[in-house]
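Need tokens for this chain, all 630 residues.
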Amino acid sequence: MSHEHVSYLELLARGAATEAYDRPVLLARASGAGPEALAGLEEAKQLALRVRAELEGRRRREAELSALFATAHDLAGLRDLDAVLRAIVQRARALLGTEVSYLSLNDPVAGDTYMRVTEGSVSARFQQVRLGMGEGLGGLVAQTARPYVTDDYFGDERFQHTRTIDTAVRDEGLVAILGVPLTLGSQVIGVLFAADRRARVFEREQVALLGSFAAHAAVAIDTANLLAETRSALAELERANDIIREHSAVIERASEVHDRLSELVLRGGGVHDVAEAVSEVLGGTVDFTETTAGAARRAGGHAVRDGDDWVAAVSAGGELLGALVLRGRPDLDPVDLRTLERAALVTSLLLLARRSAGEAEQRVRGELLDDLLDAPDRDRRLLRERAARLRTDSDAPHVVLAARIDRAGPAVGTEQPGRESADRQRLWSAASHLAATRHGLASARDGGTVLLLPLGPGEDAALLARQTAAQLGGALCEPVTVGASAPVRAPLDHPDQVAGAYQEARRCLDALRLLHRAGEGAAAEDLGFLGLLLADSRDIGGFVERTIGQVVAYDERRGTDLLRTLDAYFASGMSPARTKDDLHVHVNTVAQRLERVGRLLGPDWQSPPRALEIQLALRLHALAAPPARG
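Here are the structure tokens for all 630 residues:
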């Protein structure tokens, strides 16, 4: 083998560039080789170039097959569609030797095409572009379902140019573009592109290679869609199974609570037994309460949500008896809601049964109160014995309360007789229940109800009147107005005082209604000078103390002259300028004294109602004060 042939083998062995194969011929010509030797070298060069091209082709095909195999391997373990598509685009770019590669997909919902994956792109506009169907080189590929290539994008008139696409392509600087279709069956779902920022010719093998990658990309998308549909179907099936299991469990719970409630009714169980049974079955905590009137009133005949709790009204004949409150189960199945409502119905039946059993006792309580009002000369020993049987604390101070329903609507006395009778019955029932719980007495009288209730620690007549109005109004879902008497000490020892106290309570009740304060409770002391006129006790000192007592005390402690300033101020027609003349002081002194009065009596002390009461209190205080020494 000649030295020149060895040179060509070395060039092949180290994969030299094509230009290097001209060197042996040039060296031989320079050394004076003859024509025959030069012809032999030229033949050896061509043979070496053919071998080189064959080796290069084999290496390229090997790389392509390796990339396609890796892509197929990615598809076999498909977990993340974006990752698979990104790998396909990266391999296509590397094997075709292009500067940019990208993949676009059709969006049937939006009716356009969008960039799904890009590799080598540097333009944000290009990476986010959305194209109308049929626009650009990709539109031509999608319409024909065939590959298309252009070596000069902007000079190619075979496809539809748009400002949006051309601006994005110009931003990226692309010149030569190859696009091949992504097809599923006969439908084109997108396009795979390879592009350069310089003019170039894409060979047939490169077009075929990009088409192979496009086929893999279409398979990946189809596989991912099938997997998504399968996962969705499995999730739906799992949800359906969960619903079936949960519904079955709910039905079992409803059946169990039905059996337990039936057993409770038959063996004479109580309200708290019902609450305990429902708590165990529903898995939360159920309590019976009489103080959830607001939420229970909204509930009507259904359970309603109150924050994280559920409230079911316990009512009968339009009267709200209380509510069942379920805690610890914020999310409740509709069947469980019906279970709670059924428990509320059973509770109302039990309460009605208990009430019917207690109505005899309520009538006895009413008869005792009627005797105190109508026959105060009865034997006091017998009265005490009857009160003891009713567990009434006859030695404590009591207050007589007169109550009536005051709803908005027709004037008093114009309601239908049937409605009035029903109202009186409901009010008497609620008042009797309240009296029994407070160890007092109640009776229907004069179109309303009268109660005799003991005062608790820290209570006075006014507070008891307000509490009674709120409790009766909440139970009946109607405004109930309540007037209270002054306290009666040991009413069974002084039965003659009860009738007078009732008349005082009636006068307070009438005054509240005239003052348009329906639904409130008050005693004479709450009504200012009007209360002074209504009260039997004529507690003048108490009225003066409640009205101007703080000013009197301030003058006594500090030696000031606020009372005289107040008197002069009202006498002068509430004019500070005339007041300072009467008192012979500076107007600033008057202003400072009146400001002090305002801090003691409150900011509304000059309002007409307050001013009238203050002037009356000033006169009564002056009458009660000892005469000044001369």
